[in-house]
Design a protein that fits this description.
Blueprint: E1 14-15, H1 17-24, H2 28-36, E2 43-45, E3 51-55, H3 56-80
Antiparallel strand pairs: 1-3, 2-3
Helix pairs in contact: 1-2
Length: 81
C-alpha cells in the first residue's frame, strides 16, 4: 500500500505587504509607513533583507492591543464626559 504524504495546512504564517494591506483594509503605502516607523511587526528575509513579511500572529496581537487601547480611550472619554 502506498502512503500519501502528509497534508500541509495552507494557512499562511506571514503576509506580504500587499496581502497585509488588503487584510488591514489600508493602502500598501500606509503599511510601508507603519513598517518604517516601527509600528508594525515585520521580518526581512532573503539576500539583503529584500523580502518583507508580516507575521500573522504578531499582526493579530497588534490589532488586539490597538483595539484594547481604543476601547479604553472610549471608556475614559465616557467617564470624563
Amino acid at each position: 500500500m502506498i502512503e500519501k504524504p502528509p497534508t500541509i495546512n495552507p494557512v499562511k504564517l506571514a503576509l506580504s505587504v500587499p496581502e497585509a494591506a488588503v487584510a488591514l483594509s489600508i493602502s500598501e503605502r500606509s503599511v510601508w509607513g507603519m513598517i518604517n516607523s516601527g509600528e508594525l511587526p515585520h521580518v526581512r528575509l532573503g539576500e539583503g533583507g529584500g523580502r518583507v513579511l508580516l507575521p500573522v500572529k504578531e499582526l493579530t496581537e497588534y490589532l488586539s492591543r490597538k483595539s484594547a487601547a481604543a476601547s479604553a480611550g472610549v471608556e475614559q472619554g465616557a467617564a470624563n464626559g
